[in-house]
Amino acid sequence: MTAPKKLFIKTYGCQMNVYDSERMAEALGGQGYVETTTPDDADMILLNTCHIREKAAEKVYSELGRLKPLKEVNPDLKIGVAGCVAQAEGEEIMRRQPAVDLVVGPQAYHRLPEMETRVRSGKPALDTDFPEEDKFDHLKSRPKAKRAPAAFLTVQEGCDKFCAFCVVPYTRGAEVSRPAEKVLAEARDLVERGVREVTLLGQNVNAYHGGMSLAELIRALATVDGLERIRYTTSHPNDMDDDLIAAHGEVDKLMPYLHLPVQSGSDRILKRMNRSHTAESYLRLIERIRAARPDIVMSGDFIVGFPEETDADFEATMELVRQVKYGYAYSFKYSARPGTPAAERPEVAPAVADDRLRQLQALITTHQRQIQNSMVGRDVSVLVEKPGRKEGQMLGKSEYLHAVHIDDAKAQVGEIARVRIVDAKTNSLTARHL
Ligand code: SAH
Ligand code: SF4
Ligand code: F3S
């Protein structure tokens, strides 16, 4: 038997890329590859890339520059670029970095085995099509390999919303939902392999329509024995329908955490962003969600320094944050992306945008800390994911997605432990067994 070839995948960007990287590893498993944790001894390196902001895209080229010398050590090494930079820049990548042998867009991963054969024969391979067929149908999983207790499961991909700043509709294409029966079959398979929590993924996951709505899919998943926790991300405010809100109050397995990006608190800017909701409609929506599930922890995304954002617009964002009080929130400085409508507009001065980002992040951190502190003394359930750095310590996530360190580790990986929170830091909580 020949020794297996080694595959190193580096993943950038969102959770969907994390899921896709697992599927790519499985697809190349059929070509005799096993995964390795370092690029140094790899026969194939894949960068699964993100195009959302300029910095994310530029990182890929600097990483390629660092990896290139490895080809001198191992002449059989092949380097590939996958993901959203691959989709957006295509052949340009091979021109800018000739060490790249393979470029594959996010909808063409099922063609990786053929592409691998092609590059092994010394020819470059490029595929950035949006084929009709379901890429996941062709990605056969390895026989029942054991999985970590929390897994991602992509149910919907692409986006038809065309926010004025965003590349996703171009890099991932139009909104497509996977049929519910395939999602349910994959969930059952994951459970057989040790998974107890799934996070349903989609760029607009609550627009899911794979023969049923997202709320119906969640209710169906809740009947899967052994599956204990369900989450979903990312949602668009306009697709939060009544049934989905009701599910938060009715389905015990649906965890009390919701990522619901709003981007700005200024109606003028929201309009310019083509978001098709207002600050007020977003706040009313959160009221309804909290009425269904009062202890829900909210999270969100913000862009500061969007073209034409004034001090008053930014203050409206700060005010919205004060009203919602997020448990977590991610804020980004606007980055002009080629091909998007907003890229044509006059930009806010970088120093002004930096200053706003600092102010917003400070406010968000204050709230995050308050919410973490408010957990002390409370009893929560933790899905134990792995051993911690300290002797006898285990790490996991609470219902609210808080990272929890359990210090008196009587719990096993995969167990859902009832614990009492005894201490809080900004990014983690410490707990003891009850
Ligand atoms: N589908 C999700 C998010 C996709 S991208 C949604 O609709 O909200 C993740 C986050 O990156 C976005 O929510 C936004 O806050 C940020 N983002 C997207 N494009 C950006 C850009 N050009 N500059 C800065 N941040 C951006
Ligand atoms: Fe991008 Fe807007 Fe679609 Fe989210 S909803 S992926 S921000 S275009
Ligand atoms: Fe980035 Fe593509 Fe995800 S641009 S955020 S990897 S969908």
From TrEMBL:
One GO term describing the cellular component: cytosol
Top-level EC class as recorded in UniProt: transferase
Binding site for [4Fe-4S] cluster 2: C159, C163, C166
Note describing how the cofactor binds: Binds 2 [4Fe-4S] clusters. One cluster is coordinated with 3 cysteines and an exchangeable S-adenosyl-L-methionine.
UniProt keyword list: 4Fe-4S, Cytoplasm, Iron, Iron-sulfur, Metal-binding, S-adenosyl-L-methionine, Transferase, tRNA processing
Region annotated Disordered, chain positions: 118-141
CDD domains: Radical_SAM
Start and end residues of each Radical SAM core domain: 145-368
InterPro entries: Elp3/MiaA/NifB-like_rSAM, Methylthiotransferase, Methylthiotransferase_CS, Methylthiotransferase_N, Methylthiotransferase_N_sf, MiaB_methiolase, rSAM, rSAM_horseshoe
Gene3D superfamilies linked to this entry: Methylthiotransferase, N-terminal domain (3.40.50.12160), tm_1862 like domain (3.80.30.20)
Domain of life, source organism: Bacteria
Subunit structure: Monomer.
Sequence similarity: Belongs to the methylthiotransferase family. MiaB subfamily.
Name recorded for this polypeptide: tRNA-2-methylthio-N(6)-dimethylallyladenosine synthase
Species classification: Bacteria, Pseudomonadati, Pseudomonadota, Alphaproteobacteria, Rhodobacterales
